[in-house]
Design goal:
The complex is a heterodimer of chains A (315) and B (290).
Chain A (H helix, E strand, L loop, with lengths): L1 H20 L7 H26 L8 H18 L3 H23 L4 H21 L1 H4 L5 E2 L3 E3 L2 E3 L2 H24 L1 H11 L1 H6 L4 H27 L1 E2 L6 H14 L4 H17 L7 H15 L4 H14 L1
Antiparallel strand pairs in A: 1-4, 2-3
Helix pairs in contact in A: 1-7, 2-7, 2-10, 2-11, 2-12, 3-4, 3-5, 3-10, 4-10, 7-8, 8-10, 11-12
Chain B lengths: L1 H31 L6 H17 L4 H24 L7 H22 L16 E3 L2 E3 L1 H23 L1 H11 L1 H6 L4 H27 L6 H15 L4 H21 L5 H15 L14
Antiparallel strand pairs in B: 1-2
The chains are: A mainly alpha (315), B mainly alpha (290).
Chain lengths: 315, 290
């Protein structure tokens, strides 16, 4: 039992060590900033990976939940005077509620149909955020009040690094445990064959709905963090391109590989930063990166590396 | 009444463009099971290339022809350098590749062309025709006539030529098609070329009415995709009906409800349709074998 626990938590310990050690190599605050972005995106990507990699359900509209979380921490404090952290939880609950309401009918769909339904859902959120300018500031977006913890305003990138890092490690452990649980195994059975899972007595619809809600809440928390960290939010954060970015991170890192989520997020956050000298070419390069990775490393970075190592061991 | 006519004419015009985009989706999907999200970029490339070639002093019809050829070549290149090497990848990976391609093409377009909006002169001038109190743009009629012609030509081609029959055979059963000696890879490449050409024509036709810029492709692809799903993906008739329906719904939503929310209404309807008739209007349910 103890050995089992150790094996399961091993990746989490590795990630925690990475979070702690990484800042030792940061030459400036700018690197903390990139670190924060990596962890925030990785948080959303872990959630999406639970849905895509484990349960085998695609979502092309997950940025919608990111947007709900982001605007919760913007609208709540400004219009209702609620503390940011409370709005973060409220946003997560709201995202979960939306996922619960639309999830049951939508998740009956499969393949491309599920893709277009989730895509529509994400776009609807983005359209509402763009058009309700009275609340959201419209296409120009709105500023977000800083997070206040223990009567102190949190603004530095280093402070945010530890908040985002800790949350990510927590979310990571949660995801690992979830996948080891009966629900997690049931989800993997659904991924394998929905029909077979049904025959085994798994309540397929309910399990899919559960994981959809959980992944929506992951995305929502990530969205809240992103808004609080940047201090500004626009409807683009809920847009189609953002959704695609999230899916790309999942597939890039490796579907079904939780640690791959961190790798995928890191690659797609860091690469564009490293390529800012080619600012004009940013979009073209992003498209090229996605294409090249999908064509040549289609299983994702982490599973491809793991397979390479497994191959060596055979020798 | 005049209002109604007005909405119908504008709905049909936009709907015809969505139908052409959806037809492009359907053609590629039928022959390869790939959802090509770069379809909207073909529309953008058609419009933008025509604008810039015409700006260089080339007469408009020739510019349009060059744009169609360029876009078709890009469609072929997309198949050759992105789709073929990824042979056998999962559907999600394929979707990501075509989305990557669409982001790439958009990125290149904003460098090669520019980031501004452009228009083209309408074929028969800009004076609206008054009909039953509604003002109908001559270009709307051009769009509708051309879309009808394209659909008819495509049908004739599929139904009457050997190559068309090979496309049909590939769509029906890829393995069987290969067994009787059809080079299914070339058929897939061919369907990319045709889809690109149809997209380019749609882009050229709509530019005098709706303007074009490097980023018009995304929304067009999404609406076209939605239209294809609404009709039932893989059904050519469904693509045309789905496109026209979405165009009409949008026009009426914009007219009677709110123009800000016209996009939202289109996607809302799609959600409702998908949930109530999951395989679209003309699609067939797939039976899963265990």
């Amino acid at each position: 039992m103890r050995a089992l626990l150790e094996i399961r938590l091993m990746p989490a310990i590795v990630v925690a060590v990475i979070v702690i050690v990484l800042p030792l190599f940061f030459p400036s605050a700018y690197y903390y900033r990139i670190g924060v972005l990596v962890f925030i995106f990785a948080l959303a990507v872990v959630g999406l990976n639970l849905l895509m990699g484990f349960a085998g359900q695609v979502s092309l509209g997950h940025a919608g939940f990111l947007g709900i979380g982001a605007y919760s921490v913007a609208i709540g404090p400004i219009y209702f005077g609620a503390p940011s952290w409370l709005c973060l939880f409220a946003g997560a609950i709201l995202s979960g509620a939306v996922a619960f309401l639309v999830g049951r009918p939508i998740l009956r769909l499969k393949g491309h149909y599920l893709a277009v339904a989730t895509l529509g859902l994400g776009l609807l959120v983005a359209i509402v955020l763009t058009n309700e300018a009275g609340w959201t500031g419209g296409p120009d977006g709105m500023s977000v009040p800083r997070l206040v913890l223990f009567d102190r305003s949190v603004r530095g990138a280093d402070a945010w690094y530890w908040i985002a890092g800790t949350t990510f490690v927590g979310a990571f452990v949660l995801a690992l445990n979830l996948m080891g649980s009966p629900t997690g195994r049931a989800l993997q059975a659904i991924h394998g064959s929905e029909m077979a899972a049904l025959v085994l007595g798994i309540d397929v619809a309910r399990k899919k709905l559960t994981i959809f809600i959980i992944s929506a809440m992951y995305a929502s928390v990530a969205g809240s963090y992103l808004a609080l960290f940047n201090g500004y939010i626009t409807p683009d954060s809920a847009g189609f391109l953002r959704s695609i970015e999230l899916v790309a991170m999942v597939v890039l890192g490796g579907m079904g590989s939780i640690i791959g989520s961190l790798v995928g997020a890191a690659v797609l956050v860091v690469l564009p930063q490293a390529l800012t000298i080619f600012h004009e070419y940013e979009q073209a390069l992003l498209g090229l990166i996605i294409m090249v990775f999908m064509i040549f490393l289609r299983r994702g970075i982490v599973p491809s590396i793991a397979a390479a190592f497994a191959g060596w061991r055979k020798w | 009444m005049a209002e109604l006519l007005q909405f119908i004419s504008s709905g049909l015009t936009v709907g015809a463009i969505y139908a052409l985009v959806a037809l492009g989706f359907t053609l590629i999907y039928k022959s390869s099971d790939i959802i090509n999200f770069a379809q909207g970029e073909f529309v953008m490339l058609g419009g933008m290339t025509t604008v810039f070639v015409a700006l260089a002093g080339v007469p408009l019809p020739l510019a349009a022809l060059i744009a169609i050829i360029v876009t078709t070549a890009i469609g072929l290149a997309l198949h050759r350098f992105a789709i073929e090497p990824a042979h056998g990848a999962s559907p999600v990976a394929m979707i990501m590749i075509t989305i990557g391609a669409s982001i790439f093409l958009r990125g290149v377009a904003q460098i090669v062309f520019d980031r501004r909006f452009h228009s083209l002169p309408p074929v028969f001038g800009a004076d609206p025709i008054l009909f039953g109190g509604a003002a109908i743009l001559p270009q709307s009629l051009v769009v509708l006539a051309s879309a009808t012609a394209i659909v008819a030509l495509l049908w004739l081609f599929i139904d009457r030529t050997l190559l068309g029959k090979a496309v049909l055979a590939t769509a029906a059963n890829r393995l069987a098609a290969r067994l009787i000696g059809i080079d299914t890879r070339r058929i897939v490449g061919f369907s990319f070329a045709i889809s690109a050409a149809i997209g380019a024509i749609a882009g050229i036709l709509i530019t005098p009415i709706a303007l074009t810029s490097y980023d018009v492709g995304t929304l067009l692809a999404l609406k076209g995709f939605a239209a294809a799903m609404l009709g039932g993906i893989g059904s050519a008739l469904g693509a045309v009906v789905g496109g026209l329906l979405i165009g009409m719904i949008e026009a009426f939503a914009a007219g009677y409800f709110s123009s800000n929310y016209k996009d939202a209404v289109a996607f809302l309807i799609i959600l409702v349709v998908l949930v109530s008739i999951p395989h679209g209007l003309f699609g067939r349910a797939k039976i899963e074998r265990v």
